[in-house]
Amino acid sequence: MTDQTPAASRPMMRWAILGAVALVVAGGAAGYFLMNNTSKPAATGPVTVAHTGADSLVDAANVAAAAEKGSLCERALTRAQSYGVLPNGTTLASTEPKPAQDKQFTCAATDSAGAGYTVVVEQTCDNLNDHACFVLRTISQADGTTLFDRKI
């Protein structure tokens, strides 16, 4: 059997085949991304934590926020542990915060191994039940090593 295609149209045929393959690949990729979009619709209730990103991270942050109870220092310790900065088992030297600067307070804590930490918290409003009313500023070890520093 002989090839009936004229020699001049062979390069055009190659380009047509390549173009068709490119369209199929592009269409498949677009379909994959459109059909596999797993994002949830926006929450209808209030989100108490100013986190964005994966839904699981927002959910975990909201669970941690719900666990914050007690004084400013107790809430700051709970938040620092939920961020993973301070180990579980860390306790406060005192539940009462010490004034540091304007709207900022310090809380002293010690972990189960005896290592000391200083947590600096900024209180932005009086309602401690509102998760947004205080912000962790810095967390440092007793030797001055900074473990957490919020630079905003």
**Biggest beta sheet summary:** 6 strands, antiparallel
Q: Total helix count?
A: 3
Shape category: rod-shaped
Please report the total strand number as a whole number: 6
Which structural category do the helix and sheet elements fall into? alpha+beta
| CA gyration radius, whole angstroms | 28 Å
Please trace the helix and strand order, writing H or E for each element. Answer: HHHEEEEEE
Terminus-to-terminus distance? 76 Å
- Average pLDDT, rounded to a whole number, is 76
State the helical fraction.
25-40%
Beta-strand residue fraction: 15-25%
Poorly predicted runs: 37-52
Brief digest:
34% of the residues lie in helices and 20% in strands. With 152 residues, the chain is of the alpha+beta class.
Task: Walk me through the structure.
- By secondary structure, the chain is of the alpha+beta class.
- The protein has helices at residues 10-35, 55-67, 72-83, and strands at residues 91-92, 98-99, 104-110, 116-123, 134-141, 146-149.
- Strands 1, 2, 3, 4, 5 and 6 form a 6-stranded antiparallel β-sheet that branches.
- Residues 37-52 have low confidence and may be disordered.
